[in-house]
């Protein structure tokens, strides 16, 4: 039996030994009282009290001094054999009293240990052999001293008789020992089944508790499950599958909810580019539990293309000083040029600081994501955090960037349309003013023309009158001549 098996069986066999001890002690106590009972009839008080008391002291003394050991089992075996010898002497050689040893053998079977028969068997054989030989010599040699040993009431104990008695004892001991071996093996079998049943019950109880935690969506609570148990293994596989499914659903819920709220923000602020960029970057920082963010818009002035910080949230003021970034300049410009996200978990010193009421510190991670549609970059988002972003959060930013890009393009078109509309209105007002001025000029010109016509008519009339006067004068002058 291995050490582990012995350790498992020990509590159960300790209970068997405890009950066997109780039977043995009752037997020993009964034998002691029986010895006192015999002393009344045979006047053998010295033997009854002396040997009986010493036997009790031997057994209980060893049990007390060697607590936790099993030595008193073997001492008890020796003591019941000693009581057998005591009874033979008390009854002056009534040899049949050795049947009390057979009673003791039956009692010792309660230990289910064949080894406990060894002390009693050795004592009985040695006792019978030695004292039978002594008494036999007394009868053969007529030695009265040897004859008074009172081992047996027979005239003598020859070898044949002795062998018959020893043989009977041996048979009784062999039968008892064999039955003890059988009962011990049977007990081991039953105990093993009981242990397995208890272990299985514990496993089942643990599995039930584990299943309840799974039913309550508590996938992180640890249990000491038996991996060799098929049900436990199946439950662990189920938990891992449900845990992955739950994580996936939580991530999808995070993405879908974020995109839905982002759509509302885009719908409410789609007409104003500045409001849109600010509301979007504020939402992303708060929704993803980040610390700060900036939104750079791609702008063109003639042949010059650059990125300009349009919206920001909790951004460092020093960062806002340089609002224009050229393509390829810094991480933002690099992300624009490569049309791909940049994710850093080792942020360079003094690249960016996250400020709070207690001071500022370098972020743990930075992600720079292009806002693009059909490979055309509309802007760049830069977000910083004191924590490392998870993969599904980075994927969410990629998806959000696509929706934002469309809205950004629409906002740009709307803004351009608004600017063109305002420019058109301004030009229309200018044209109206010019038309009014021209109308006034035309009216003035018409008035001038009318005045000129009147003046011309006056001139013509004056000319006609002058001509008439001249003609009259000419006639008068001609008549005079």
Describe the protein in words.
The chain has 481 residues and is α+β, with helices and mostly antiparallel strands. It is 70% helix and 10% strand. It is built from 12 helices and 8 strands. The chain has helices spanning 3-42, 45-65, 71-90, 99-108, 117-140, 144-147, 159-215, 230-269, 273-287, 317-321, 330-338, 391-480; strands spanning 292-301, 304-313, 324-325, 342-344, 354-356, 359-361, 365-373, 376-385. The strands form 2 sheets. It has a 6-stranded antiparallel β-sheet. Strands 5-6 form a two-stranded antiparallel ribbon. Strand 5 (354-356) and strand 6 (359-361) form a beta hairpin. The longest helix has 90 residues, at 391-480. It is rod-shaped, with a radius of gyration of 60 Å. The chain starts with a helix and ends with a helix. 25% of the residues are buried. Mean pLDDT is 79; it is low at 317-321.
List keywords for this structure.
481 residues; alpha+beta; 8 strands; two-stranded antiparallel ribbon
């Amino acid at each position: 039996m291995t050490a582990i098996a012995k350790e498992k069986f020990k509590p159960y066999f300790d209970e068997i030994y405890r009950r066997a001890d109780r039977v043995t002690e009752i037997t020993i106590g009964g034998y002691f009282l029986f010895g006192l009972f015999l002393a009344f009839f045979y006047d053998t008080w010295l033997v009854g009290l002396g040997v009986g008391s010493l036997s009790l002291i031997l057994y209980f003394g060893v049990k007390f001094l060697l607590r936790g050991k099993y030595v008193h089992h073997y001492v008890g075996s020796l003591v019941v054999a000693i009581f057998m010898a005591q009874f033979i002497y008390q009854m002056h050689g009534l040899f049949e009293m050795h049947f009390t040893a057979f009673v003791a053998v039956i009692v010792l079977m309660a230990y289910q240990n064949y080894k406990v028969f060894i002390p009693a068997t050795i004592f009985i054989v040695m006792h019978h052999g030695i004292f039978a030989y002594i008494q036999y010599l007394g009868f053969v040699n007529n030695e009265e001293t040897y004859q008074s040993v009172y081992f047996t009431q027979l005239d003598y104990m020859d070898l044949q008789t002795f062998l018959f008695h020893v043989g009977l004892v041996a048979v009784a001991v062999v039968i008892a020992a064999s039955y003890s071996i059988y009962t011990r093996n049977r007990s081991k079998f039953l105990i093993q089944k009981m242990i397995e049943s208890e272990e299985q019950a514990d496993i089942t109880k643990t599995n039930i508790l584990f299943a309840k935690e799974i039913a309550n969506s508590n996938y992180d609570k640890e249990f000491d499950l038996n991996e060799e148990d098929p049900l436990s293994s199946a439950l662990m596989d189920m938990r891992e599958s449900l845990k992955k499914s739950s994580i996936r659903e939580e991530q999808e819920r995070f993405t879908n909810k974020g995109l839905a709220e982002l759509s509302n923000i885009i719908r409410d602020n789609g007409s104003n580019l500045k409001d849109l960029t600010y509301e979007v970057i504020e939402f992303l920082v708060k929704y993803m539990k980040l610390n700060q963010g900036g939104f750079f818009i791609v702008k063109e002035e003639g042949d010059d293309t650059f990125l300009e910080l349009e919206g920001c949230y909790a951004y460092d003021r020093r960062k806002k000083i340089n609002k224009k970034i050229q393509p390829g300049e810094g991480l933002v410009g690099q992300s624009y040029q490569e049309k791909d996200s940049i994710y850093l978990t080792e942020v360079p010193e003094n690249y960016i600081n996250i400020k709070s009421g207690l001071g500022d510190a370098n972020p743990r991670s930075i992600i720079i994501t292009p806002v693009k549609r059909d490979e055309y970059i509309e802007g760049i988002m830069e977000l910083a955090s004191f924590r490392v972003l998870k993969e599904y959060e980075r994927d969410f930013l990629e998806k959000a960037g696509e929706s934002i890009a469309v809205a950004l393009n629409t906002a740009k078109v709307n803004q351009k349309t608004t600017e063109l509309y305002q420019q058109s209105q301004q030009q229309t007002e200018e044209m109206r003013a010019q038309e009014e001025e021209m109308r006034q000029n035309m009216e003035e010109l018409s008035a001038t023309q009318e005045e000129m016509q009147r003046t011309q008519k006056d001139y013509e009339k004056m000319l006609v009158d002058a001509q008439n006067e001249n003609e009259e004068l000419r006639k008068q002058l001609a008549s005079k001549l």
